[in-house]
Specification:
By secondary structure, the chain is an all-alpha fold. It has 24 helices and 2 strands. The longest helix has about 70 residues.
């Protein structure tokens, strides 16, 4: 156990020397951090305040884009109600043109159909007449040819035209009405409505030129105010006050550190000597035990003990003698180091670590009987402000800004100077008082409305389309001409050769030609016109209701523009103004947070204080000192039992000059006498 105490002493003595050698590096590191804190704060403040330029440029960009941002916002608010109404009118204008084209197409096609139908009727009449003449041939009087001729004569009625196109009324009157309607260019009027509505952003831009100029002037003046804030913030003044203390402290440490290192070398040498003396005593005891144990002979008399055993006893006695010589020195060193180390540990180190020391320093009127709070009295000369060492230390440990840590708002309240209402109140008022007049928007004038009403009364929806559809759905002829021609040719083949047979075959061929060249094109034209009339019927169906709905939608949109446009302008103006003001609200809030919580983060101050007290004093000096007195004290405590043990044990190891002799007496008396001799070391 004593050896362990000596090892503690060696370790503590060496550790203290090693830590003292680190003092210079520790001090340089802390002073470098403190200077960085002091020198970096102005640059940080300048950087933060200079970011106003970025915010202002963003605001200027939005102000320059008032056409798209404010005008476009108003336009988009009105668009869902206005554009559908204009689209309906535009579609109606297109429908008028398409209706005219459809009517013209149907009317022209009907005229062609009438001509084609008349031509077909003429061709069929010619064939029919030719057949009748052929059937007047004398061969038709003699049976059995007469029967065939009669059958053919009976079937001639199938060659009649099956349609009556001439009864279909002409579409010239509806077309004339559409032409009259188209004299007013409804599409052009609708485009004017589109243009009038789409010109809203440009109108907003033209009417807000003066307001935008005033807002920009206000923003420039805000920039000047913000720049002046950097000069008024007392952070630099407070940091400058500490610069002198830092310089003096650094100069003092650099001047006295060599002396401290020199004295520490003496201390280290003295501690080494003490530990070596203790080690020497231990070595004597170990050698005494080793030699005494190895040379001990239990059968040898005290005067005849061996040299090795005697040497062990001598080592034990030498160790005991050295213990007597250095014991008082060790006790003195232990007492002194204990008094210093233990008291500093209990009165300074532990209270500093649990912050009770700072609480003691914060005791009102302790450090200055006239100041309730010493720190606030020293910083602001206002001792009534609740600024404590514990609070400052805690904030610095959390790396908070020096503004909030030292409560510099008591000297310069940045919240008041960064109040958005103070700086941006004029901007908000400008946007709230913005007057934009866009009440003169007309989506469709009276000419356009009359044009739509005329179209609804054009009579297109009153046309009897069923007559046309019924007539056009008929076949051009009563019978299929191809079947009729084939049947005619079969009957002719049963006739004897002659002019009648040849005439009937020629007529059959003529009928086929009529079917191919006239009937088939006529059927195709009739089918095409049938589809066109069906489409025209669908388009004109409910025309009056469609026009009424379109006009109703137009009136609703126009009324919406008249009644709601003012509120939309106010709403969008406030939104636009809030966007501009929002840039500065966020910027000023960021400046406030940065200055109060981040700029000049004072963790280097807490680190420097920890380095001076917790690291240098407690860890570098007091902890090794306490380990040293503990180790040396532990070794000293075991000196007394080791001393007693060594003296007692040396009696059994050392060689004696004489020994106790027992003799037998005459007459039965038993007695003894002891020869005493001195033992020399």
């Amino acid at each position: 156990m004593r050896s362990i105490g000596i090892i503690y002493g060696f370790v503590a003595n060496h550790h203290l020397r090693a830590q003292i050698e680190k003092t210079r590096k520790l001090a340089d590191s802390n002073f470098r951090d403190l200077r960085t804190l002091l020198n970096g704060a102005p640059a940080e403040i300048s950087y933060i305040l200079s970011q106003y330029t970025t915010t202002k440029e963003k605001a200027f960009s939005d102000l320059d884009n008032v056409k798209s941002l404010l005008g476009g916002g108003i336009h988009e608010q009105l668009r869902p109600k206005v554009i559908p109404a204009l689209d309906d009118i535009k579609a109606m204008a297109e429908a008028i043109k398409e209706t005219k084209e459809a009517l013209l197409n149907v009317n022209n096609t009907l005229k062609e159909l009438k001509k084609s139908s008349a031509q077909l009727n003429t061709s069929l009449s010619d064939v029919k007449r030719d057949l009748e003449q052929s059937l007047n041939d004398p061969m038709c009087s003699a049976p059995p040819v007469a029967t065939t001729c009669n059958n053919i004569r009976t079937s001639l009625s199938q060659l009649d035209d099956n349609t009556n196109m001439d009864q279909l009324p002409s579409l010239d009157k509806p077309i004339d009405k559409i032409n009259d309607i188209l004299q007013t260019n409804l599409s052009s009027l609708v485009q004017q409505g589109y243009k009038s509505f789409n010109d809203i952003p440009e109108m907003v831009k033209n009417q807000t030129t003066d307001i935008i100029s005033d807002v920009k002037s206000t923003l420039n003046s805000i920039g000047s105010d913000i720049e002046s804030i950097g000069e008024q913030i007392p952070i630099q003044d407070q940091l400058s006050n500490f610069m002198g203390y830092i310089n003096d402290t650094e100069t003092y440490i650099r001047r006295n550190l060599p002396t401290l290192e020199e004295y520490d070398s003496y201390r280290w040498l003295g501690g080494l000597v003490v530990c070596c003396l203790l080690t020497l005593v231990v070595i004597f005891y170990y050698l005494g035990l080793l030699c005494g144990t190895c040379g001990y002979d239990r059968n040898a008399t005290p005067t005849r003990r061996g040299c090795v055993s005697n040497t062990g006893g001598i080592f034990l006695m030498v160790g005991a003698g050295v213990s007597f010589l250095i014991c008082w020195i060790l006790m003195t060193i232990v007492v002194l180091t204990f008094v210093v180390g233990a008291n500093v540990e209990k009165l300074l180190c532990e209270p500093y670590q649990n912050r009770k020391l700072l609480q003691v320093l914060d005791t009102p009127y302790l450090l200055n009987e006239n100041w309730k709070h010493y720190l606030s009295g020293m910083v602001f000369n206002k001792p009534d402000i609740n600024l404590t060492f514990e609070q400052v230390y805690s904030d610095c440990k959390e790396n908070k800004g020096i503004y909030g840590t030292l409560k510099l708002e008591n000297s310069y309240n940045i919240s008041e100077h960064l109040n958005i209402q103070e700086h941006a109140g004029n901007i908000s008022n400008d946007f709230q008082n913005m007057k934009v007049n866009i009440d003169n928007i007309v989506l469709l004038d009276e000419a356009g409305r009359k044009n739509l009403m005329d179209f609804s009364f054009s009579g297109i929806d009153a046309i009897n389309y069923n007559i046309y559809l019924a007539e056009l759905s008929k076949a051009p002829t009563k019978a299929n001409l191809l079947s009729f021609a084939d049947d005619l040719e079969v009957k002719a083949n049963h006739l004897p050769h002659g002019s009648l047979k040849q005439s009937l075959k020629n007529n059959a061929q003529t009928i086929r030609t009529i079917h191919r060249s006239e009937v088939i094109p006529l059927e195709q034209s009739m089918s095409s016109v049938y589809q066109s009339i069906k489409e025209l019927q669908q388009k004109s169906s409910g025309l009056g209701m469609k026009v009424t709905n379109t006009l109703s939608s137009l009136d609703s949109a126009q009324d919406f523009l008249t009644t709601r446009i003012s509120s939309v302008i106010v709403e969008e103006s406030q939104k636009y103004g809030n966007t501009i003001v929002g840039y500065f609200e966020r910027y000023l809030q960021w400046v406030k947070i940065s200055i109060t919580e981040k700029i000049a983060a004072c963790k280097p101050v807490a680190t420097a204080l920890d380095s001076a007290v917790d690291v240098f004093l407690c860890s570098y000096i007091i902890d090794p000192m306490n380990l040293f007195w503990f180790g040396i004290g532990k070794a000293t405590v075991f000196l007394l039992p080791a001393l007693i043990f060594a003296v007692k044990l040396a009696k059994y190891y050392r060689r004696m000059d004489s020994e106790d002799v027992y003799e037998d007496m005459e007459n039965g008396n038993i007695g003894f006498h002891r020869h005493h001799s001195t033992q020399t070391v």
